[in-house]
Design goal:
about 400 residues; mainly beta; 18-stranded parallel β-sheet; ten-stranded parallel β-sheet
């Protein structure tokens, strides 16, 4: 007869009392919460900084620092870091290739990149289809606009920033776009002097340019260069608090040469100063829904505003002086500008619209003619009223005292 086996009391597992289980659960939850809180309250990790001098750059204005600057850019790109540019003049014997997320940060007015005359067109910094590029506190300097030296060329840039920058004697200051589409650009606090083309933009959208002071090459230039040149594929761009002066061509050149469109572009607190240069403003066929607000236009040349068949253009709040007329078209053009509105402005001239202008649906509301020179800042709405509607083409049809 087999012996029965009995389990002893010590071999039997008893469940923990409810109170013990609750205590363990509470401790576990508290541990998780404290860990999460520590993560939230911990200071953010500081991005690594890569000084160009740590990679051999001298900054003495004599040594070719291109290789050292490129090495710092490459190292920072691998670590999502920032390239630091201490005070000095860094001579570049060739261009720097930017990377995704490249940030070069210098000391405004003290961190200078220079380049001697080049045998062919050369940009100091360039890249294609990059995201998150930032250049800040840098001066880009060449000896002359004829030295084949330009500043930045970036096609297809997304969420890029140029801040506290200065460019001197450049062929192109910043050439943005012209191929792959880009978006989200912020360009602010920029000064350019004696640059043939200050900012060229094409194929960009949803961007802001503000606090720009761009001076061209004046009458010494070719007549084909412009402080700001907007081309095809520019959509939802805002330009604010900007001075464009001494243009060798037009202070503001909105021109599409090879087909396409650009639209929804606004300008606020803009000064176009043609003194010491040539023309002030042209808006070409393919541009639509263009808005100007609080604008000063000063010309020593032809008409203040040239229209080559754009659509839906409004100037609201302006002062103007010089030129043959406030607004006009080209003598040989066969296409008409359409739906053009000018309101709340004064023109210190004798003719609002040039004779034979190719404009349909032109409206002028609260616009006055006067002989006094305007101030250099935008002026509030004048007191006289002139209304022009439905395709005025001759200056004799305009009644400024209507």
């Amino acid at each position: 007869m087999s012996r029965l086996r009995h389990r002893t009391a010590s071999s039997v597992m008893h469940p923990l009392p409810l109170t013990s289980l609750s205590i363990l659960q509470t401790i576990l939850i508290a541990t998780v919460l404290l860990t999460a809180l520590a993560v939230v309250l911990a200071p953010p990790a500081q991005a690594a900084t890569f000084s160009v001098k740590d990679y051999g750059a001298k900054g003495d204005g004599v040594t070719d620092d291109r290789a050292a600057v490129q090495a710092a850019v490459d190292a920072a790109a691998g670590a999502s870091g920032t390239v630091s540019v201490p005070a000095g003049t860094y001579r570049l014997g060739g261009g720097i290739s930017l990377r995704n997320g490249t940030s070069l940060v210098g000391i405004p007015g003290q961190s200078v990149f220079s380049m001697a005359r080049q045998s062919g067109a050369t940009f100091m910094f360039e890249g294609t289809s990059l995201r998150g590029v930032r250049l800040e506190g840098l001066t880009l300097r060449a000896g002359s606009p004829q030295d084949n030296v330009s500043g930045l060329y970036l096609v297809g840039g997304v969420d890029c920033t140029l801040r506290n920058m200065r460019a001197e004697n450049m062929r192109w200051g910043f050439k943005i776009g012209g191929g792959y589409p880009g978006s989200g650009w912020l360009i602010e606090d920029v000064v350019m002097r004696n640059c043939q083309i200050g900012i060229y933009a094409a194929d960009i959208s949803d961007s802001v340019f503000r606090r720009l002071d761009i001076q061209g090459t004046g009458t010494s230039g070719s007549g084909l260069d412009h402080p700001i040149y907007l081309d095809r594929g520019v959509y939802r761009l805002s330009v604010q608090d900007t001075l464009l002066s001494r243009p060798s061509g037009y202070a503001l050149h909105m021109y599409i040469g090879n087909g396409g469109t650009s639209s929804d572009i606004s300008f606020e607190r803009l000064t176009l100063d043609g003194r010491g240069g040539r023309q002030t403003c042209v808006i070409w066929q393919g541009f639509s829904n263009i808005r100007f607000r609080d604008v000063t236009i000063i010309s020593e040349g032809d008409n203040l505003i040239h229209l080559y068949a754009p659509t839906d253009v409004t100037f609201d709040g302006f002062t103007g002086s010089g030129g043959g007329a406030l607004v006009g078209t080209y003598d040989d053009q066969s296409v008409y500008a359409n739906r053009i509105t000018l309101k709340n402005g004064t023109y210190a001239g004798t003719r609002l619209v040039m004779e034979g202008a190719k404009i349909q649906n032109l409206v002028m509301d609260n616009v006055s003619l006067g002989s006094s020179s305007p101030s250099t800042t935008p002026t509030p709405a004048p007191t006289t009223r002139a209304a022009i509607r439905n395709g005025v083409e001759k200056a004799s049809d305009v009644r400024p005292d209507a």
